[in-house]
Design goal:
The structure holds 2 protein chains of 2 kinds. By secondary structure, chain A is an all-alpha fold. Helices cover 73% and strands 3% of the residues of chain A. The radius of gyration of chain B is 22 Å and the shape is globular. In chain B, the strands form 3 sheets. A 7-stranded mixed β-sheet of chain B has the order 7-6-8-9-10-13-14, with helices on both faces. In chain B, strands 2-1-3-4-5 form a 5-stranded parallel β-sheet, sandwiched between helices. A two-stranded antiparallel ribbon of chain B has the order 11-12. Helices cover 42% and strands 19% of the residues of chain B. The chains are: A mainly alpha, B alpha/beta. Chains A and B meet through helix 1, helix 4, strand 1, strand 3 and helix 10 of A and helix 1, helix 2, helix 3, helix 4 and strand 7 of B.
Amino acid sequence: MAFYVVQFLTGLASAASLFLVASGLSIIFGVTRIVNFAHGAFYMIGAYIAFTLTERLSGAVGFWGAIVLAALAVALIGVLVEMVLLRRIYHAPELFQLLATFGLTLMVEDLVVLIWGPDDLVGRRAPGFRGAIDFFGQNIPSYDLFLIVLSPVVLGILWLLFQRTRWGVLVRAATQDRDMVAALGVNQKWLFTSVFAVGVFLAALGGALQIPRDAVHHAMDLRIIVEVFVVVVIGGLGSIVGAFVAAVLVSELNAFGILIFPKISIILVFLVMAVVLIVRPWGLFGKPEAAARKTPGLTVNPWRPLTSNERLAALAALVVAATLPLFAGNYALTVGSEIAIFVIFAVSLHFLMSVGGLASFGHAAYFGLGAYGIAFLAKMAGLPMIVCLLLGPLLGCMGAAVFGFFAVQLSGVYFAMLTLAFAQIVWSIAFQWVSVTGGDNGILGVWPEKWAASPSNFYWLALGVAALVTIALRAMVFSPFGYALRATRDSLLRSEAVGINAKRIQWTAFVIAGTTAGIGGALFAYLKGSVFPDNLGISLSVDALVMVLLGGVETVSGAVIGAIVYKALNIWLVSQTDLSKLVLGGFIVLIVVVFPKGIVGMLEMLAQRRRKASPPGSPLIAKPIESAE
Amino acid sequence: MRARNYFVGAAFALLAGGMAHSAMAQDIKIGEINSYSLLPAFTEPYRKGWQLAVEEINAAGGINGKKLVVVSKDDGGKPADAQTAANELVSSEGVAMLTGTFLSNIGLAVSDFANQKKVFFLAAEPLTDAVTWSKGNKYTFRLRPSNYMQAAMLVEAAAKLPAKRWATIAPNYEYGQSAVAVFKKLMSEKRPDIQWVDEQWPPQGKIDAGPVVQAVAAANPEAILNVTFGADLVKLVREGNTRGLFKGREVVSFLTGEPEYLDPLKEETPEGWIVTGYPWYSIKTPEHDAFLKAYQAKYSDYPRLGSIVGYQTIKAAAAILAKAGATDPEKLIAAAEGLSMPSPFGEITFRKIDHQSTLGAYVGKTALKDGKGVMVDSVYKKGADYLPSDAEVEKLRPKD
């Protein structure tokens, strides 16, 4: 019995750090609607700075002072980031801030290694909390007891802050309806900055408090960020109490789960999230999102098909691209094939995000399923390549049909997180089911047949498929189905009022996007000759999001440019510099500031201004830009 | 359509290809790939190791009079990116062979690439047995002692312990799974009286150490096998120390004696663990002295195991190239099979039968000295003594 009590307390201690970080994220999202991907980075910087300070300052006062100082210092960095970077992009399309914070995260990962070196750092133990307390023969670390007490205290302070202060009232009001708060004359700028600072402070405090039990290293951020998102979503976005309950729930399920299934940790949080979201679409303590007032941005510049001149220009460009094998070497061709494949992947997500208004955080699942489909068909059934390419993406299609059915019942960030949960579940199946998928050692030897083996032939194949896919999806945007889908995106209620079966339309779009991603994955399997669980992983899903956002989420097919720029730059930087994350992150942040509508979105805007300024004829600059559409 | 954008892509690709143009024609180039950005704690010393080797080789007149150049690429910890890098090295840099890699899945991905494109590949670090056995191919060789070899070395010491109730803690991925499987198999062969009472599989890099330690303690084992390393090991050791998990229990642990993983533990280093590792401070052989002196002179830092691996990888590559006298992969394979060469750990040989080198490892016990973790009573175990019989290897390896 004593054992179960101690295991329960241990779970509570694990919940504490999760709660601190999650509450910060939840507050920030509630008010600013920013999906703060950099929250893990702030957590990590908190730990690093606390490490440095605790090594310098001595004694108990020094230690605890250092923890608080570190959190304050990071909060200051947070304020800077908010004022310099995020303030500029609050009015950018939804999720664009995710791109900015993603760029920051990349930069921070390289920066901490530059500043603190590559080795894992182990900090001091907390003065006064070094040992353990004996509980009927079981040891409970006293630091765990400290954490167990700390988290309800923090919860209480936050509650008082939100219920009993004017600032708290404003924050709650802004969480509910920030436009109304602004209309009533509240200075939104400072409200947002202060909220961001509090959120970052909590993240950094969570990181700093890990010093006595963890190692400080450059991958801490990724280790926690996804789990924290999950906790926030299970609890209900914007709800502090929800974050607390969810953190405890997840940690306790883990603490007791490993007694029965020792391998469960790898997937547990995602299983819990999927179940919670299917049963309670807004999390345990969340409320349905109020119908957001649509920014008019989407309607100012209605989408239109290409003119015949633009079509000719695009065709010409395709022909030029097809001549690449005449003068480029094998490496350039292989990179070209990879870029073409990522164009397919990005346009498939773009179709779901821009046309359907459904941002998936787990789109790699369908890409990876397509790749695994190929591996199964080619390696186990021994089918010829053409047959594999036709049938492989069906696995992506089936996955999308099953998961999409559940996912489209939700919307907004909840939709995004449910897709993430499904993707992680698929990933862990690929990772764990060693006898079928080979686990993380993957399936090797999936090379193309002779006719497609040469780099030039494979390049033409990938280019051709990418062009076909882009044309097909574009045609779909301007088909009746596309109009219906856009209607559900712009106003769910109105579209249903005119007789559109919104859920079915969205589900169909999800399946189309999943299948298309599967086509990309199928080609990818042949390009690399092997399939790994990585192909289903979070980082690939994030890559796809970044490509779409970079290109411009409000454009008809900006993802094509986004994919080309991001992938080419990524491959080139990784090859040329050891600090590729720093440079790439910096580039993304720069793009976000300079092109708040994405690259293509911005070019379109410029072109439009130009068109208005000069008489309609042949504006030299506008033309290539539009053919880029 | 958007097709003109492919042109932009093509231009980028060309740029990427063009930027890395080859050096002098008479140089011999080796392509090197590792997870520099993902695992800097290991790969930084590793890089220093191979840079030292390149310097020494060129100072001694290069390879048959030609200068050795190593072109190094980062794979970011992703198999797909490692293949892109391998492709660049082979197609546009024109390297004579590929070397490097740390993670097992990346080692396998590059090995499969090498097999497909008929390129010589010398795997440096990946430990999975599959590289030389179940997924072995004629183009792939490996330097470091495999999972099987390290398990066999540890089992030799572990089997002498009186403990009968064993628990295991290992990261939940291929490396952890196969380390536990091999250890269990070899151990149960030697000691049929052993019981396996618990196993814990925390996700790699995400151990929730408190509950794991508590769960293992609840099974009340007499001895524990640990396979976690890096930040997970730190958390496990700290929780284990506070909760008294290791008190009165024997612990056998993979890799923990390597400075990369032992040094961060500082005064928390648990004493008396039986580990594999690299006690650079207590190795007193002329070969190692020479290496240590050169390394400390160049970097004014002590070597980690990664330094040895990086150093010996390039030394081995150079020896193979020198013996082959050509860069044709078939000739390189012929030269490498059965080739013996000196190393800081003594002479090693690349076996003809499975392309595994006989580089060994040190087995010893952890101890705390001046607030730092060290390995004591270390003994060098030759790799050749811990490999299964040729007949068994034949069965494990697919026919070329």
